[in-house]
Amino acid sequence: MVKGHEIGAPFDSSEVPDLEPSDANKANICRHLKRAAAETPAALAVAVQKKSFAGKLRYEELSFGQLDADSNCIAQALNDYGIKRGMKAVLMVTPSLDFFALTFALFKAGIIPILVDPGMGVKNLKQCFDEAKPDAFIGIPKAHVARCLFGWGKPNVRRLLTVGGSGILANLFGGTTLKALLKRNRVTKPRSQMHQATDYDIAQLKNDEMAAILFTSGSTGTPKGVVYTHAMFEAQISVLKNDYGIVHGERDLATFPLFSLFGPALGMASIVPDMDASKPITANPDSLFAAIEQYQCTNMFVNPALIERLGQAGGNRAKPHRLPSIKRVISAGAPATISSISRFSKMLSAGVEVLNSYGATESLPLTMIGSEHLMKTTDVTDNGGGICVGLPVQGVDIAIIAITEDPIVDWDDSLRLPANKIGEIVVKGPMVSRSYYHRDTATEQAKITDNNAIRHRMGDLGYLDQEGKLWMCGRKAHRVETSCVNSECDQQPYFSIPCERIFNTHPCVKRTALVGVERNCAMVPLLCVELKKGVEIDDTGSFFDELKVIGTKHDQTRGITDFLIHPDFPVDIRHNAKIFREKLAVWAQGIISEKEQSKESSAGVKR
């Protein structure tokens, strides 16, 4: 095992002194890795869990010294291969030691990695690569097979690099392998000796210079490439240190590849479990528990789907599985339910909270709320008050503006709505991206210039309470604006989260989804309902009447009188929580249209 911080000993951030903040014209987050390699070269940086064919777990490790030296060698080899500063390289490598070394090598060399979510689908992936116009494609054999089949990256890619597999496969794909590339550059030492390798002068970039392109999942629209700078990465590292209290020497169970890269940058070891990060709901809880216990992880970064999965496996037992080493749990990506947090928390020591974070690929993290405080907001949420996502983290300003689809060029404080007024969430801070890559229209719709800064329109609706806490009320695109053929009908807007959480209080309901449908030439709200597992409704009329009674008790839902039961909501594969309401709206409209046609036909027969 690589040596690390003594388990159980208190962490002291003064043990390893901070470097001076990066110069505005000499930015590169790899400075944090170089610092850790200089101060604690033998300490654990990365451990990757592997499962043998027999099902036995084993671990591959890198120390900070090895990771620094390994990435140095790869950066030099990439340069010699013709992949140089300013070029763009698709990186499709599964979480592994090579993934970490390659990513830091790209950053060191000033090569711009293009990172995509493999779960977004073949069509969306091709669009991402067509827009990004990569110069190089670095991937595992499976990624290269898909590249060849679907034409990813044509005609821009000029350099191909295969990671893993045999040299024979590389001959089929074109280009070379990482192993052959390092051998060509006379890098033949085993990783255990790599810390003795020659240094590499990392690229000195401007703070606002493009460092990476991260494509959003597309779960709420067409995937867009978010331009990341080293200043954004630095801001995120600062928040993780100062707001979340992460210190040098910790160990993190890293279940999301991008977040796992922050570990070495924070002087924290990233422990990568054997799981498909794009489908966390399929993870084997026992493998994750084993990784936590093997390395006595102190931190966990998990999305709501994993909180639910692990809670069901370990928190539902008569004697809950214990995770005594965990000191902090960070959840992001979608709101975790109170019930799943309660189950999961049974495994944690007293006083350890699940820290729920709000943000997006374009700006993360923005707010934070601990599970202890979140539990106290249940009554407000169940009565249509939205979901509390907490107070802003350091350096973040949150404003609520009136709902509009029009672009806003310049910011003015007069745009701010007062407390408790629902509108669109707009954010400003050092971790907020300035643009999308080659998507001028999307940038124009989402960005507002505020002197030298940029404000980002989140596309989410919410409000700020009197204490400055942010409450989420759903996506702007998911609100239902009713329309009528007469002036007497209800024309109030309906917001997804407040409405759905009211109806979710029914004991038979698992979850609901608000959609808009056209009925009798008017746009009206309709609620799709998914029942809890094992629940069967014999009389839908009586069940819908019960839902109507619940709706009449609240101003937010009084006008919702149409309901449909759906067997299984379509959701995104990563979070298993983001409902594809657009698909449900099409489904619901089809059923409503059939019913109206049937009524018209019946009326015609009677006449």
Automatic annotation (TrEMBL):
Which sequence ranges form a coiled-coil region, renumbered to this chain?
A: none
- List residues of the AMP-dependent synthetase/ligase domain: 34-437
* Short name of any one Pfam family annotated for the protein: AMP-binding
InterPro entries, per this entry? AMP-binding_CS (IPR020845), AMP-dep_synth/lig_dom (IPR000873), ANL_N_sf (IPR042099), ATP-dep_AMP-bd_enzyme (IPR050237), OlefBLtnSynShew (IPR054910)
Q: Looking at the record, which segments are called Disordered? A: 1-20
> Would you tell me the protein name for this molecule?
Peptide synthase
